[in-house]
Each structure stands twice: as structure tokens, then as C-alpha cells.
Amino acid sequence: MSRTALEGVRVLDMTHVQSGPSATQLLAWLGADVVKVEAPGGDITRRQLRDVPDADSLYFTMLNCNKRSITLNTKTERGQEILTALVRGADVMVENFAPGAVERMGFTWERIREINPRIVYASIKGFGDGPYTAFKAYEVVAQAMGGSMATTGFEDGPPLATGAQIGDSGTGIHAVAGILAALLQRERTGRGQRVNVAMQHAVLNLCRVKLRDQQRLAHGPLAEYPNDTFGEEVPRSGNASGGGQPGWAVRCAPGGPNDYVYVIVQPVGWQPLSALIGRPELAADPEWATPEARLPKLAKMFQLIEEWTSTLPKWQVLQQLNSHNIPCGPILSPKEIIEDASLAANDMIVEVGHPERGTFTTVGNPLKLSDSPTTITTPPLLGQHNEEIYIGELGLGDEELRLLRSGGVI
After folding, report:
1. Are 64 and 25 in contact (CB under 8 A)?
2. Residues designated as active site
3. In sequence order, which ranges of 324-397 are alpha helices (DSSP H)?
């Protein structure tokens, strides 16, 4: 039995920044041999947002664990010859350069397929074919154009970006799904194929409930939204749950920026909740007893709940709500998440050693496979595996490796 799910799968990682590296890191966590191909200057994120001088930044280290790194100048003739050899030996190639960049190197899909008919070639771009194709894509641009920002925020405020990287890492996860599907299909056909994923499309896929509500809006106001008025477009609705059961983030003591608990009010939960907040009579009051009666006054309902929660710390609120099976969750800050013992016990908050910067904290593999446990290993230094791959695997000689370095090829 294989130790890891993707053992024996070689991934040629020609990605940078976040969307591509997040995808290839997940493949590495699943057991693939991921070889990160970097220009001699390295992935730009090695130097961005540095907190330790002259060491790879957390931006880089948290997206490139479990990989090997080689350097290669693909603009040189010898560099293109070496890249051809790397493509020939790979199962998967992933890139997220600007549109047309790989093609300008001379590596069109047709040529790549000719070099290696079994390769799965995945490209992550900002947009699909059309008027946006040449737009520069960034995380929040993808959120803006995928439907997220227009529906995030409060009714009387501007569109807001979410702190979750749904444009970058969200697209990376979509790319992994396409790559794994293509590898599975290759088992039946013997052929590789092209996988294309656009950041705008991935964000749109994650915003499907808002497209649902846009269509529902044609038949009247959205009763589960706290908004007073509705026009022709789905409004921003604050912390409304977006589902069939109303929810809201209510303030707790002592009133700090993250002293909140998110509470969902199900029909079965109203009686115990009304008792907890000191208003047991509301369980039988026809003005409050049913979901239909409560919907027109959601703001007042959550105000009553908050009058209770604001007197207690969020962990005490959480304990009391959970004791009555009322769906809820505390708002956890990044600091609280890093310090959460249960997340560490589940290998979701992981300490990783690094030769230059010491130990850093990162996110673990969210995909838990019973036969393929993940061990998070340190990200590679720039070009750390040049000798191992170029001499040990491609068969180049010591002298040629020296000439490649002196000639700026690696």
C-alpha cells in the first residue's frame, strides 16, 4: 500500500505568488513530488512582507511547504532544453503566469502535449476568454468580479472584501480538483489533458447562493434578509446567514473587537433561547412564537439576544447555547486560532522548522485521508535541489552544472 495518495506523481510547479502555489502545496501534502521551478531570482514572495531580514517571508513559506526548488532561466536556449526534459518526466505541470507568457516561451499546449502526451497541464488565470482576458488579476479583483464584494458588507456601506482568500487559494483548490480528475481520467484513456481554471469563475462558484437569491428576488422581497427595502439587485445584508435559518453576530462582554458569537435561530431553538435571554413568554407569544412571525423583526430579535449576550463572555455564551443545541460559534481572531489547542491537535495549526528563520506557524492539510497522513515539511530554499535534480535525476555533470550557474541559466 502506498504511503501517500499521490506517491509517484511528479508535479512541475511553475507558479508564483498565491493561487498556483496554494494548489501545488496541496498536491504536495497529498504526496506528490512537487518540483518548484523558479527564475534565478526566485518567487517574488520570498522577499515580500518580510518579517525576518534576509530570510524567506511567511508569504512564501506558508504556501510552499513539502516542495523541492530548482532555479531555471527559461528565456535561455539551454534553459528551454532543460525545461523540455522536465516536462517529459512530469505527470502534471501547473502555471499561473499572465495570459500568453508560457506560450511566448515556446511552450504552447500543442508543444507540451507533443513532448509528453500523458501530462496534465493546468493553467490558473484571472479570467476566461472574453473582454476580461487581459485584465491583471489580484485576489480582491477576483472577489469584485466574481460576485463576492457586491454582496458583502452592510446595506448602507460600501462593498467589502472578505478576509478569506477565495480568489487566490479558493481558485487553487478548484485547480486541484481539476488536476485530480484529469489524472483519474488518464488512468482510463492514457492521455493527459489541459485544465483551465479562472479566478473569477472560482469566486463565482463560491457565490452561487447570491445568484440563487438574485433569481428569487424576481418573485418578491427576500424575507430572511434583515433589509427593509429591496431593489432589482441582491442587497448587502451584513451578517445574515444567507440560508433558511436567520443568523447574526451578537456582541458579548467585555465588548472587544472580536467579542462576538454567531447565533442561528432555528424553530426548535426559539423556546430554549427565549428562556436563556430572560424572555420565556416570547415562546408562546403569537407575535414571536413562529418563524413567520419573527421574520419581519429579525433586527429586534437579535437585539433582544444581544442584550443577554453582551453581559457574558463569549465562551460562556457559547457554553450555554450549546447546552441547548442552539447552533452558534465564537468569532475567533487569528491570534485565538493560532493558540487553539484543538486545531493543533487536529494538525491544522502546525509548527514547522526553517533553516533561516527558525520555527514558524502555518496551516495544516485540511484534507484528512486515513491511509495517507500528512507531515508538513519545511519549504525549500531557493535552488536547494538544483544538484539533486539536475545531476541526480536529469544526469547532467558537475562541470555542466557549474557552467549553468556561471552562465545565468540556473
Report:
1. yes
2. 168
3. 334-338, 341-345, 386
